[in-house]
Amino acid sequence: MNSVIEAINSRRSVRCYKTKPVPKEILEQIVDAGNNAPFTSMTRSQPWRFVVVQDPKFREKLLQAAFPFWKGSIDSMKDKAPELYDMAMTMYNAYESKDVIYYSAPAIIFVIGPAGSGVSCALACENMMIAAQSFGLGSCYVGFGAMVKGSPEVVEALELQEGEAIFGPILLGYPELNPSEAITNALQNVGPNKKDSVTKWI
């Protein structure tokens, strides 16, 4: 099979990672793949920039900033969508670190660009996730991971400007193939529900 098609077809969202760091040279190639993504003609050039986070202490600051948004969203589901609430809390209780946003991934890539550049920035995210798969890495696009603007320290570190938005971020790391029983059971509830393509040929 074509190696690119194989990487696309085998990619899955990974929510359990080994502590093993990702070599910088691999991260640089993944970022370069993101930078080579197509972009809309309205921007005329790449609208994005990237921030790569590897420092565990800063990752903890990210979690502290984003977790209240996750908690508020999950709590709102308790009565309206009890199945989703139970799934989320099962995930939360399974992780010793309680990191149900970044899943203790050893690398996080923030894709940052103008608020109106969502299509282009999403293309960059996809390129990076496919590139990561080709290196044997797991990846995950985590929307709650972008909810960090409430922390001035994080905003300063990411150099967020007025009118900028975070797309992703993208988690990267080596998949943990033998997680604990609790995590294994929790992940079964969020597994992929892949469907065949719906295609009309004319």
Q: How is the topology of this model organized?
A:
Elements: H1 3-10, H2 24-35, E1 49-53, H3 56-80, H4 82-94, E2 107-114, H5 118-134, E3 138-141, H6 152-158, E4 164-173, H7 181-188
Antiparallel strand pairs: 1-2, 2-4, 3-4
Helix pairs in contact: 1-5, 2-5, 3-4, 4-7
Structure notes:
- The model has no long low-confidence stretch (mean pLDDT 93).
- Helix 1 (3-10) crosses helix 5, helix 3 runs antiparallel to helix 4 and helix 4 packs antiparallel against helix 7 (181-188).
- This protein has helices spanning 3-10, 24-35, 56-80, 82-94, 118-134, 152-158, 181-188; strands at residues 49-53, 107-114, 138-141, 164-173.
- The protein has a four-stranded antiparallel sheet with strand order 1-2-4-3.
- Helices cover 45% and strands 13% of the residues.
- The protein is an alpha+beta fold and 202 residues long.
- The two termini are 27 Å apart.
- The chain is built from seven helices and four strands.
- The radius of gyration is 17 Å and the shape is globular.
- It has one domain: NADH Oxidase, CATH 3.40.109.10.
